[in-house]
Design brief:
The complex is a heterodimer of chains A (346) and B (475). Chain A is mainly alpha-helical and 346 residues long. Chain A has 20 helices and no strands. Among the domains of chain A are: 109 residues, Leucine-rich Repeat Variant (Alpha Horseshoe); 60 residues. Chain B starts with a helix and ends in a 19-residue tail after the last helix. The chains are: A mainly alpha (346), B alpha/beta (475).
């Protein structure tokens, strides 16, 4: 045993040092390649700037021909973010002629996750007839969920995504909590509203997903959907109830005021916070007394939001805050006086 | 009679030798397992994109973050540090500098540099701390707040910052550290990808000594010219790239560095914030977070990701380094004994067995066994009590396996991250990874024993951390 410990340690240390020596040598070679690539990048970048200015695609194609395709792709990703309108169109046209989409397609098939993700975002810059096919391919079959979401987002920006159910099946939403999914919902085309509405009502779907769908609905055209928000404000999942109350407040749905007021005593603090904020936005002075109780809530954010919402009610709310600041219990008093000193929420 | 005594001495020496070797073996096995896990984690890590792409991808959905900067006698660096923090690339953040009763001109310099004015900012008194004397904001930027409070220590200052901040996520960073411009964006990624489960994220701390720093940014990376910080570069690689990445992979990360860690505010408030007076307040907080989430049976993640980088100044003198290492050791011992009820308790699963077990082997028993080995193993061999094989086995565990672990950490860095710009740097670091095992490691263990002694004597002095001024340094 003792000899084994010693022998094994010698073997392992010799191997580790040897590997490190190989890596140092690899780095020497890589450094030379990087220098070469950096020079090529400068060259192709200059050609791209000239192209945007002079619209001389042929000169750019000559420069691109002498540059590794991956370097051109990398430079184009940066450059396209800087140009707009005709200049952007001219650059994209020239990149198309230089065979960039073919390279990006091969990256989408053979690259690692980072390169595939990058290629998805790059290929989406081209005309729909070039971009849609590869993007749909990634959405349908990429092994990385990040890449599938990115492809879906780009397809949504172009305005050609599959129906929501199919989209979520392809992305795979079990255990999914990415905020990027909320972004995707916001980008979905007009005809997806009914599907989004259905998703909000799917009790077996994750609360995060349903809340994201609710947010997308009110941001899109909340006034068209009050019945959904009213119904789901009663949902058992706090995340969903909170998102519905937020929606009701943001769209200014005064008819739901009694419902919102009933949520001021909800056991979940996020629901209470959204409810009190919604009441403030709806601006009903009669609600001031009910909101005053929340100035003593266990959660600071609820207390603070309640005070801000009271201020939003106008003279009645401000008078309520002043009287609490002068006479209320310590915690209520502090919250009221601090918000009074800070003024109206932005 | 003499023969009987002699047999007893040999028997006792054999037991001691095997205990020392067994503990060394346990430590080495833990390190080797960490290496394998870290290599696996690196190969499976999520995509790393350039910061411009990150902004385009996540800018819309990134959560607001408060940067909490406790500052005690940081006059030398603080203005430049705050400038660099305000220039971070992140869509929605605020910087809260907490002046913890500094005796130097930290507050005055900030007031002068940013035209600070006293304001009335409402805040939640969720955590206890020394009284706040005033809160200041700057007309030059709405992102900056300075909290001036009575001295109460680092944890106390951090707690005041947590109270004052309004973001759902906060990042703690030392006043003398420099975040890379995209560090917040990268550290926020787990909070975007998995906002429900992720409660804390740690990033990499790198040694800035020797690098060129201009306008609060590391513009050229160089290795330190002096030996002591150079050894610390290897140590930091081992600690972050190997240990933390490995533990993070199996959701058993026990330490998110207080020099750069991002936390969800609600959970930190729920555990009472940073423990005041603790020598290892960062380790203490993470253990409390684990305990809270496991007790509440909540699914959660505490992650380490290697890409966000925070640069820090490593001690360049033996005296300062000695104080730092003794303090770290006291911090580990304090946390271990404070939460000892979690050790090997089935309720705490991987945290009780692997996390706390790791602290037991590496921080509680490790230094004692190693220092005992340095004294007894050569003695037993020279006195002819034990054979040369025992001595060789101990030597292998301390020196040769030490080389394996350090060089392999460097291999991981080069194979996956390649953050050292030149091949020459790698060659120098390889040499340092070998040489540090002969002398530096032993001195470190002596400092740890000193920390042990201070812990037993309940010596809670932090010791002065002499700064040379990272923000103005060049190679």
């Amino acid at each position: 045993m003792l000899v084994l410990i010693w022998t094994l340690s010698l073997i392992l240390s010799a191997i580790s040092i040897l590997v490190m020596v190989v890596l140092v040598l690899r780095r020497v070679v890589a450094a030379r390649r990087e220098e070469r690539d950096a020079a090529s990048r400068r060259h192709v970048m200059t050609a791209m700037i000239r192209l945007a200015h002079d619209k001389d695609a042929d000169a750019f194609l000559v420069a691109a021909a002498g540059t590794p395709t991956s370097v051109t792709a990398d430079a184009s990703s940066e450059f396209l973010g800087l140009v707009r309108g005709e200049e952007r169109e001219a650059v994209l046209e020239a990149l198309l002629r230089a065979g960039q989409p073919d390279f990006l397609e091969s990256e989408l098939k053979r690259g690692d996750e980072v390169r595939r993700l990058h290629a998805v975002e790059l290929i989406a810059a081209y005309a729909p007839d070039v971009a849609i096919g590869p993007l749909r391919g990634r959405l349908a079959g990429d092994r990385s969920r990040e890449v599938r979401i990115a492809a879906a987002i780009e397809l949504a920006k172009i305005g050609t995504v599959p129906p929501l159910g199919e989209l979520l099946d392809r992305i795979g939403y079990r255990g999914q909590r990415s905020r990027r999914l909320a972004e995707l919902f916001r980008l979905l085309p007009e005809d997806s509203v009914a599907e989004l509405r259905d998703l909000t009502r799917q009790r077996d779907a994750p609360g995060f997903l349903r809340a994201s769908a609710l947010e997308a609905l009110w941001r899109r055209d909340g006034l068209a959907e009050p019945s959904v928000f009213v119904e789901l404000a009663e949902d058992a999942v706090p995340e969903v109830a909170a998102a519905s109350l937020r929606a009701l407040g943001r769209i200014g749905h005064r008819a739901s005021l009694p419902l919102i007021l009933s949520k001021l005593r909800h056991p979940d603090w996020e629901v209470r916070m959204e409810a009190v904020e919604a009441v403030g936005r709806l601006g009903d002075p009669d609600a001031a007394i009910a909101m005053t109780d929340l100035l003593d809530d266990e959660q600071w954010t609820v207390r603070y939001k309640a005070a801000q919402s009271l201020l939003l009610l106008g003279p009645v709310g401000e008078a309520t805050l002043r009287s609490v600041a002068l006479e209320g219990a310590a915690r209520k008093q502090r919250t009221a006086s601090l918000v009074l000193s800070e003024g109206m929420p932005a | 009679m003499i023969e009987q005594w002699s047999a007893t001495i040999v028997w006792a020496a054999t037991i001691i030798a095997w205990t020392v070797i067994a503990l060394g073996l346990a430590q080495t096995t833990v390190y080797l397992a960490q290496l394998v896990l870290a290599a696996y984690a690196l190969s499976k890590r999520p995509p790393v994109a350039r910061s411009a792409l990150l902004w385009r991808r996540y800018g819309e959905v990134a959560p607001p973050i408060a940067l909490i900067v406790p500052a005690y006698n940081e006059a030398m660096n603080i203005v430049e540090s705050v400038h660099s923090m305000l220039a971070l690339e992140y869509p929605n953040f605020e910087v809260i500098v907490v002046n913890d009763g500094s005796k130097d001109a930290t507050l005055e310099l900030l007031v002068e540099a940013f035209g600070l004015r006293r304001v009335n900012r409402p805040y939640e008194e969720a955590l206890a701390h020394q009284p706040i004397r005033g809160i200041y904001s700057s007309p030059m930027t709405e992102r900056l707040f300075v909290v001036d409070k009575s001295n109460g220590g680092k944890a106390d200052a951090q707690n005041a910052g947590i109270n004052v901040c309004r973001a759902p996520v906060f990042c703690v960073i030392d006043g003398d550290s420099i975040l890379e411009p995209d560090a917040l964006m990268r550290a926020a990624q787990p909070f975007i990808d998995d906002p429900v489960r992720v409660i804390a994220v740690g990033g990499t701390i790198r040694v800035a000594n020797g690098s060129t720093i201009e306008n609060g940014r590391v513009t050229q990376i160089h290795l330190p010219g002096r030996l002591l910080p150079l050894f610390q570069v290897v140590e930091y690689l081992r600690a972050f790239l190997m240990a933390r990445l490995a533990w993070s992979r199996i959701n058993t990360l026990m330490l998110v560095s207080g020099a750069f860690g991002v936390f969800r505010r609600a959970e930190v408030v729920a555990v009472g914030g940073f423990t005041k007076g603790s020598m290892g307040e960062d380790l203490d907080l993470v253990i409390k977070l684990h305990r809270l989430m496991i007790d509440a049976r909540r699914d959660y993640r505490i992650e380490f990701i290697p890409e966000p980088v925070c640069w820090t100044e490593a001690p360049e003198s033996l005296a300062v380094l000695s104080r730092q290492r003794s303090r770290w050791q006291r911090g580990a011992l304090e946390a271990f004994f404070r939460y000892r009820s979690m050790l090997f308790r089935p309720r705490y699963g991987r945290i009780g067995f692997l996390g706390m077990g790791h602290i037991l082997i590496v921080d509680v028993l490790g230094p004692i066994a190693e220092v005992l080995g340095y004294i007894l193993m050569p003695l037993f061999w020279l006195l002819g009590i034990l054979s040369f094989h025992y001595f060789l086995a101990f030597t292998a565990l301390v020196f040769t396996y030490g080389i394996v672990i350090s060089v392999c950490s460097l291999i991981l860095e080069e194979a996956e991250l390649q953050r050292f710009p030149r091949a020459r740097d790698l060659a120098i670091l390889t040499a340092a990874a070998i040489v540090e095992n002969f002398g530096y490691r032993q001195i470190n263990n002596i400092w740890r024993i000193k920390g042990y002694w201070q812990f037993l004597r309940q010596d809670n002095n932090w010791g002065e951390m002499t700064r040379t001024g990272i923000a103005k340094k060049g190679p």
